[in-house]
Amino acid sequence: MVVRPHFLRDSSDMPTDQLSEVLRLVEARSAIGGGFAVGGKWTARFEVEFPLKFMAMVRGSAVLRTNGIVAPIELRMGDVVVLNSRGWGTLSGGQGDGLAAEVTMTEANMFLSVDGRDDDVLIGGHIEFNRVGTELLVAALPPVVHVRGTGTGASEATGGNTAAQLHELIKRLYDEVVEDRIGAGFAINQHSQLLLLAALRAYISQADELPAGWLRVLADERLRPAVRLMHAEPGKPWRLDELARAAAMSRTSFAERFRAVAGVPPLTYLNRWRLLLAQRALRDGDTRVGPLAVELGYTSESAFSNAFKREVGVSPLRYRSRVRDELSGRTESVPV
To answer: pLDDT over 70 for what percent of the chain?
Structure first.
């Protein structure tokens, strides 16, 4: 029996699922950046400074345009949109004669002063993640993720009526911001995290077909038992027939389905998962390369180092040094 090493375990002893594990691996966190409430005819333009920017329509409606996307995107109450690697965007809404008023996002704890029930109200922010997140989150999502706040998208994999859950989270987040109650900062952070999770669940539920990749694999009910084994015991020398048996499929059918859903063969996926875990271990601790290689299932330290360099571009020790230099630079740049 292969025991999962301490430097690959989650910080909690509670049972986990693969999506939660991935979100922890990339250190995903959402942060509210601003918003506005406005009546009448209006327009707003903004630059996108982060790889993943999100907006939630609390009330009313708006039309979103962004670079690289020809068709305008209509946002209605309860909708969430995530812009992936876009450079700029424009929003417009309201009715009335004459020129549209120009509005801008302001600081998250100051932005809302609702004058009437007909106001359009929108909140926005961004999703932060570590270096690994670029490969997992950014690569797995389309240029624009539009999650609708109306509908009844539901499945066992995504946990029921995701649209209703998303709508309720937006309302709670909005209430915490405008009411400025004691503990509001903590509540805003928690609701922001849950909003990210709910948006991903709703996206999985509402999408006609997810792009091939890790997110689609995690949502595939047929493949999930095999994926669970690879995530739970990444250092075990899994054979294709063992994984196929866990999925109750023939070896050939399993291999074909996995490649179509993940975009890579099962053992390639396993190797990439091992190397992602290795990056976390190297980044967060003082684990020696030799024991890490053994625990991840490599026959030798050199075999692990070669595989790591092929995938990441640098050796394990160079990766650790580079990441720690970056983290040190960020810490030094923060005023005390």
So the answer is: 84
> Could you give the CA distance from residue 213 to residue 204 in angstroms, rounded to a whole number?
12
Question: pLDDT value at position 12?
Answer: 44
Q: Distance (Å, rounded) from C-alpha 214 to C-alpha 80? A: 22
CA 64 to the chain's CA centroid: 21
Residue 154: its pLDDT value, please?
40
Strand order from edge to edge, sheet including 42-47: 73-76, 61-66, 88-93, 42-47, 101-102
Point out the residues of the chain with pLDDT beneath 70.
1-16, 105-118, 151-162, 327-336
What's this model's pTM, rounded to 2 decimal places?
0.80
Q: Which two tokens stand for residue 268?
A: 């390639």
Using CA atoms, how far apart are residues 131 and 227, in angstroms rounded to an integer? 23
State the pLDDT at residue 314.
94
pLDDT, tens digit, 9 for 90 and up, residues 100-115: 888 876 544 444 445 5
Task: Record the tokens describing residue 298, joined without a space.
Answer: 């490599």
Joined together, the tokens standing for residue 336 give 């005390």
